[in-house]
Amino acid sequence: MTTATKKLPEPTAQPAATKAMKANTVITELEHRRERARQGGGVKRVEAQHEKGKLTSRERIEVLLDPDSFEEYDMFVEHRCVNFGMADNKVPGDGCVTGHGTINGRLAFIYSQDFTVLGGSLSETNAQKICKILDMAMKVGAPVIGLLDSGGARIQEGVDALGGFAEIFQRNVLASGVVPQISVILGPCAGGAVYSPALTDFIIMTRGTSYMFVTGPDVVKTVTHEIVSQEDLGGADMHTHKTGVADLAYDNDIAALLQVRRLFNFLPLSNRSGVPVRPTPDPADRVEMSLNTLVPENANKAYNMKELLERVVDEGDFFEIQPDYAKNIIIGFGRMEGHTVGFVANQPMHMAGCLDIDASRKAARFIRFCDAFSIPLCTFVDVPGFMPGTNQEHNGVIKHGAKLLYAYAEATVPKVTVITRKAYGGAYDVMSSKHLRGDVNYAWPSAEIAVMGPKGAVEIVFRGKFKNEEEEQALIDDYRAKFASPFVAASRGFLDDIIRPQNTRWRICRSLSILRSKNISNPWKKHDNLPL
Questions:
Q1: What's the domain range around 305?
Q2: What is the pLDDT of residue 14?
């Protein structure tokens, strides 16, 4: 038989079988690596996390997001450090779980630090994972929620870890005003790690298990010889009551994450998406008779402004921001005819509703957030002026008060203002007056608009010109009639109407409805120069 006619061997099934075996091997390895990543730092460290009253990074994501909506990125990323024995200490995911999912069907990007893996410390690679999330969020236009629980920068990596922090900071700044950013502090957050949440829009903490500080108790003791606990130095109650660094505090992880879901429902997805709208059974023309008796006849008697807000918004659903800080002013979100609205209101129950440094900073930041994301503003005014005193003046109430003025003047969103009682002095101007481009300005019949209260004005204008208390009271009554009445401001066009309190809700709803097509812009500039 010639070579040309020699019978070729029959093909065997071995190559196909080999491919199948290889495929099965890869799939087995894939599942093994996935399972290894899901285990985090292992059973003992997960148990230690639970013993502290804390959830793991993946459990937190399950609570926060809609069921089965989480899509994970970079599950197999590992650090590249070889120093200090780190080459043999690698866990897939490298201590940070990242991805996207939905909250009530709306897209959100998530990163969740895993304290069970190397203390959740930030490495070069998991910083890259967080940066990827921030980049994607800006690209598609969706909020970013960070769940922070970390021991800080990974010491073994040195400057690589520090550089990772700076990369995150840069993206926090670029994302500001583009997509909402929420930071949830669920464990330690110290050193350089604190500046990322500080750059975001909202910070939420848990009591007893989370803290934030630049330098810890040991460093403080060494440098200043002060002895202080972690809780007193940077705990949730300290930051929500004293510093205003944190907006809200809750008792545990689950309570905090459920409230993040509630807050998220009020927020636009991005600065291009418009405010969320949801159906409501609450009629826009609802008449609230109880408002007619809310303001006491005695001008020096307090009342709870929060009651007014809850009676005006859809279904009484008002989400207050920073309720424990600068209580003399209230800020938060509600809905009118199903549309998200930002509310700012003086609170007569605290410091008579005076504006001070903390209240001005608190409200100014909130107003700028609303303006950045096209959320209309509704302002309720009952303000006797700025808080007097050396403490306020020496700590810069002039510049801090100017922040609030600046925020209102700069805002181009629809602005509706209702003066319920006092609006005295420069505080009248600052609180979204017609002069700061207020679109619709109302007053209740109980409103008093003047440079100062009638008694103080008479004591200055008529000093030494009245002989007894009867003459003084007559002058006070005359001043009140001439200058404190809302009709004077209305006659100048500074008020669009004087309304009955019971009709407040439907007058605001009607105004916001016509203002949805509002279109004004500020002069072109690279950026403003806010009085920081």
A1: 289-517
A2: 58
